[in-house]
Amino acid sequence: MVARGALIFFAVGLMHVTLLAADEAERQKEEYVRYALEHDGDPARGEQLFNNREKLQCSNCHTIAAEEKSGPFLEGVGDKYNREQLIREILYPSLSIKPGFEQVTVVTTDGRVVTGRLERANQVIHRIIDAKGKTINVDTDTVETMQVSPVSMMPANLERTLSLTEFADLMAYLRTLKFGVQKGMVAGGKLIDIPRLKTPVTFLPIHPDDIKFDNPVWCGALPGTENDMLVIEHQESRIWRTIRSAYSVQQKLFLDLGDQTFISNNQGLMCVAFHPDFTTNRRYFVKYEVEEDDQVKTTIAERRASADGLKDSGQPSRRLLEVFQPAFNHNGGCLLFGPDGMLYTAFGDGGPQEDPNGYSQNRSIFHGSMLRIDVDHRDENLPYAIPPDNPF
């Protein structure tokens, strides 16, 4: 009994030490954030650090504006992120990972384990670029499992490698990496200059600061209303309605599909399209991912709005189309009625990058294709009709 009590005391003590260590690590990160915000740093010294492969792995994984390695090229990061965002992206690399650069682990039938970025996957090979920039080809027929990790390949404890001054220098260099596109190409292959605007583009808010949306991916007018707008929250799988009057803007829930949707960095509720006769029939269509039988599918479903058209009716969805997605990105997104009354959509090329399976060249499958369906009629054994004038 004494031994058991001592063991419990030791375990509790160990957990306490671990929590203290985690708190100390977090304090150290925030100290680096504050220092880099308050000190400009030296870009020239930062560039030397970036290219010092003995001290850092930056140049093993990244180029500035060339072929991408295990990490994305960095041209434009000084434009894409403000100062604090860039600092936190470096110190907390797993907070947001660029789509297509998730870390994968492939286990082969002979027990081999390969970790890195999946650059290509098809019926022949899985091509992986590891954290040192090395390309590794794995025969597809030897792949037993492949798992995607939410943890970035980028080192999570850079502050343990660099002094405060060195970190500020590195941030100063990354902030100099602006978009360098200064020329464009017109018909005939002629290059023309693209001057920067004398007056920068400005953005004006259309709703007050207290109304916020989590990762919005689509917005548009609600048919039948004068001032109502709908906004889709991608990874919450919700549609919000904003109601604008002369005095205020209100926010109300239109639809919540969170309990039906498979959600990842690239997957969730993507789009909504309203039937051309929505104001009378209340029919509308949504596009989102589901997971069934260990497969992720992009789904198009028909739903009904309430009698007043101001929110979803709560009735079950009617599925029209669903397509298995072999990768975690390139799943398509848009859903739109054309002037012909037909519903147009696409399911992407299957990913993960550059259509590795050549799906866009295959007319017998939905991947890599633009689809056009008739939602007002049904063919035999289909919940929709194929327009007779479809070209393929």
Low-confidence stretches: none
Q: Please provide the count of β strands.
A: 18
Q: Can you tell me the overall shape?
A: globular
Q: Total number of helical segments?
A: 7
Tell me roughly what share of residues is in helical segments.
10-25%
Distance between the termini: 77 Å
Strand order of the largest sheet: 4-3-2-1-5
- Strand share of the residues? 25-35%
Instruction: Indicate the radius of gyration in whole angstroms.
Output: 26 Å
Q: Given the helix and strand composition, which structural class is it?
A: alpha+beta
Mean pLDDT score: 87
User: From the structure provided, what is the oligomeric state, counting identical versus distinct chains?
Assistant: single chain
Largest sheet: 5 strands, antiparallel
Give me the strand/helix succession: HHHHHEEEEEHEEEEEEEHEEEEEE
Descriptive report:
The chain has 392 residues and is of the alpha+beta class. The chain is built from seven helices and 18 strands. It has helices at 2-38, 43-50, 58-61, 77-80, 83-91, 164-175, 278-281; strands spanning 103-108, 113-121, 125-129, 135-139, 143-149, 183-186, 190-193, 216-221, 228-233, 238-244, 249-256, 269-274, 283-292, 295-304, 318-324, 335-337, 343-346, 370-373. The strands form five sheets. Strands 4-3-2-1-5 form a five-stranded antiparallel β-sheet, with no helix packed on it. A four-stranded antiparallel β-sheet has the order 8-9-10-11, with no helix packed on it. Strands 12-13-14-15 form a four-stranded antiparallel β-sheet, with no helix packed on it. Helix 1 runs antiparallel to helix 5 (83-91) and helix 2 crosses helix 6. The mean pLDDT is 87.
